């Protein structure tokens, strides 16, 4: 019991143990969120999330160190600068497609939240940072289908596909539309070294088909090597 109290006391102060612990927790929390965004083919992935959270953690560690060492400084003021300054990175992850469609808002909000989690962990609020990570991950991965239930006909799905030949793309559009979906636009990427093309399709779902129905249908199409819905 006495050892546990000593560890808690060390974790709350500024020392080698607490510095390593806070950085490790910060990297772990941000890495979990970043991996999910990376799977969704977002520009901000695991490394970006980790760096954002790690930077915020270092800011709070520095603020607490200054206060303990020199009896001056305000950790909360440094944290406030991080919260307002992270906006430039979030804005860079937002992409405007066409005249009215915007994507990347979830990633931008996730980056801002990762910075806040880093601040919490950096000041020693471990439990708050870990719980916040769990809630954010739940919102990003599970709440999409829940929100789609209330906005079914207006929902735009983004579907990642891999295929072998460019000539397969146009017939694919016709097949998708015959299934009751509408292809709005396409982001085509260069082929990998393996010669496999990949593209992200923005698709409207006016008939409110489930994600499972759409994926099962697309997976059966000839020439499609891989398909998944991204957020």
TrEMBL record:
Residue stretches making up the MgtC/SapB/SrpB/YhiD N-terminal domain: 24-146
Designated name of the protein: MgtC/SapB family protein
Membrane topology classification: Multi-pass membrane protein
PANTHER family cross-referenced by the UniProt entry: MAGNESIUM TRANSPORTER YHID-RELATED (PTHR33778:SF1), PROTEIN MGTC (PTHR33778)
Family designation: Belongs to the MgtC/SapB family.
Keyword vocabulary terms for this entry: Cell membrane, Membrane, Transmembrane, Transmembrane helix
Origin superkingdom: Bacteria
Subcellular location: Cell membrane
Stretches that traverse the bilayer: 14-35, 47-66, 78-96, 108-140
Cellular component annotations (GO), alphabetically ordered: plasma membrane
Species name: Candidatus Mediterraneibacter faecavium
């Amino acid at each position: 019991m006495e050892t546990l109290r000593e560890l808690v006391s060390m974790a709350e102060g500024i020392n080698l143990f607490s510095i390593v612990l806070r950085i490790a927790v910060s990297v772990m929390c941000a890495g979990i969120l970043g991996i999910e965004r990376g799977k969704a083919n977002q520009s901000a992935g695991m490394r970006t999330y980790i760096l954002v959270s790690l930077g915020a953690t270092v800011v709070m560690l520095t603020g607490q160190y200054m206060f303990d060492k020199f009896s001056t400084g305000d950790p909360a003021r440094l944290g406030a600068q991080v919260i307002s300054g992270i906006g430039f990175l979030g804005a860079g992850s937002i992409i405007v497609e066409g005249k009215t469609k915007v994507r990347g808002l979830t990633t931008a909000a996730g980056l801002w939240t990762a910075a806040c989690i880093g601040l919490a962990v950096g000041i020693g609020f471990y439990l708050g940072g870990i719980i916040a990570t769990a809630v954010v991950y739940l919102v990003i991965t599970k709440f999409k289908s829940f929100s789609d239930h209330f906005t079914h006909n207006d929902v735009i799905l983004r579907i990642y596909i891999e295929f072998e030949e460019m000539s397969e793309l146009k017939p694919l559009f016709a097949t998708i539309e015959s299934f009751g979906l509408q292809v709005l636009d396409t982001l085509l990427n260069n082929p990998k070294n393996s010669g496999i093309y990949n593209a992200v399709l923005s698709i409207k779902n006016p008939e409110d088909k489930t994600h499972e129905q759409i994926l099962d249908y697309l997976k059966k199409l000839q020439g499609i090597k891989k398909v998944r819905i991204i957020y």
